Amino acid sequence: MRFTLREVEAAARERLDPVHYDYFAGGAGDEVTLRANEAAFERLALLPHVLRGTAKPELGVTLLGGRASMPVLIAPTAFHRLADPEGERATARAAAAAETIMMVSMASTVAVGDVAAAAPGARLWFQLFIQPDMAFTEALVRRAEAAGCGALVVTADSPVFGTRGRDERNGFRDLPDGLCCENMRDGDRVREIAFSPAVSWEHLDRLREITSLPVVLKGVLHPADARAALDHGVSALFVSNHGGRQLDTAPAAVDALPEIVDAVGGAVPVLLDGGVRRGTDVLKALALGADAVAVGRPVVWGLAADGERGARRVLGLLRAEVEEALTLCGLASVRDLEPGMVRRPW
Ligand SMILES: Cc1cc2nc3c(=O)[nH]c(=O)nc-3n(C[C@H](O)[C@H](O)[C@H](O)COP(=O)(O)O)c2cc1C
Ligand SMILES: CCCCCCC(=O)C(=O)O
């Protein structure tokens, strides 16, 4: 039995090739931001209410017209077949069982159409690194649409691929033979994902012209960028530092959240990922104005520890913890969380 996400991670670490464990676990530079994401949640205190006479709390949220049974989504992470032979198929089945949204990485090791086919009823969004070759970007969008994805999650924090010291030291550069980024197939070749500093707001405008899918902008930390994103018509903002894997010493996600929420002023939903490991972290982020959070590594750990069952276990643990924390806070619903319930005691 595994009772916490830490125990799931320990089990995953035992099963994974150490080089692959480091790829999943690691961050950029000195991993300052990686550590800060979790530490920032720990520094926040929750101030509970008492004697509210509540029933079993309501956890469900509605995002971009779709329902999730809890405010915990699956963040896009690459290369699930390094963790489990079924890879993203297993993750999607776990997401469907939990009735939550899975963001399928553009760097998935199962093509998005095959992920959708393997998990009927799964609520999928497709994550996109805009490719400077807009014709190929459009081809990716069409694949996501054909797979029934409900939104495009455009990752904006990766004009270059962050330098991760663990991968450099381990010499981890390529997927093993037999695995590739299946969405990148183009005729009889598999393209490399281009990370390009030339990608700009104009590309985002162009993307919005070629699809009617809602666009979620992921990797926003600066309030001025949040305001610009609204001007460019995004449907949701996603506060994220890429799990500490891009700009090291960028702020912890939950520390950046209040200013983004303020800048957005309720115009669109705000999501957050980075360091969410406990139900209480979920409550803190929602109290500070997030509409939902997402988890990256925890789902990979579940997958590596026990395949689909492990990913389900991770989502189940988080659900149970959110429910218990809400009850202990005297709340009937995730909607009742408000900023006054979060304190910075130290
Ligand atoms: C192994 C790994 C792969 C990732 N791959 C992607 C990706 O393909 N696209 C993307 O936008 N973000 C990617 N991310 C970032 C996650 O979407 C997310 O921002 C981050 O994992 C959240 O932090 P957490 O792992 O602490 O929950 C990746 C993160 C990890 C750990
Ligand atoms: C060369 C493919 C890289 C996929 C990107 C995965 C990612 O975002 C990560 O943080 O790792």
**Mean pLDDT across all residues, rounded?**
97
Q: Please state the second-level CATH architecture.
A: Alpha-Beta Barrel
How are the strands of the biggest sheet laid out side by side? 4-13-12-11-10-7-6-5
Q: Which geometry do the CA atoms define? A: globular
**Termini separation (Å)?**
35 Å
Reading off the top of the CATH hierarchy, the class is best stated as Alpha Beta
Number of domains: 1
* Distinct compounds present: flavin mononucleotide, ligand LXCWX6NK
* Rg result: 19 Å
Contiguous helical run count: 12
Strand content: 5-15%
| CATH fold name | TIM Barrel
Helix content: 40-55%
Structural class: alpha/beta
CATH evolutionary superfamily: Aldolase class I
Please mark out the parts with pLDDT under 50 across 5 or more consecutive residues, or reply none: none
Largest sheet: 8 strands, parallel
Tally the beta strands.
14
Would you list the SSEs in sequence order as H and E? HHHEEEEHEHEHEHEEHEHEHEHEHE
Q: In words, what does this structure look like?
A:
This is Alpha-hydroxy-acid oxidizing protein. FMN binds at residues 76-78, 105, 127, 155, 218, 240, 273-277, 296-297. With 346 residues, this protein is an alpha/beta fold. The chain has one domain: TIM Barrel, CATH 3.20.20.70. The chain is built from 12 helices and 14 strands. The chain has helices at residues 5-15, 18-25, 32-43, 88-98, 112-118, 134-146, 165-170, 201-210, 223-231, 253-264, 279-287, 297-328, and strands at residues 45-46, 61-63, 66-68, 72-74, 101-104, 123-128, 152-155, 185-186, 189-190, 215-220, 236-239, 270-273, 292-295, 342-343. Helix 9 (223-231) links the parallel strand 10 (215-220) and strand 11. The mean pLDDT is 97. The structure holds flavin mononucleotide (FMN) and the ligand CCCCCCC(=O)C(=O)O. Flavin mononucleotide (FMN) is lined by residues 24, 37, 75-78, 105, 107, 127, 155, 218, 240, 242-243, 245, 273-276, 295-297. The ligand CCCCCCC(=O)C(=O)O binds at residues 78, 107, 193, 242, 245.
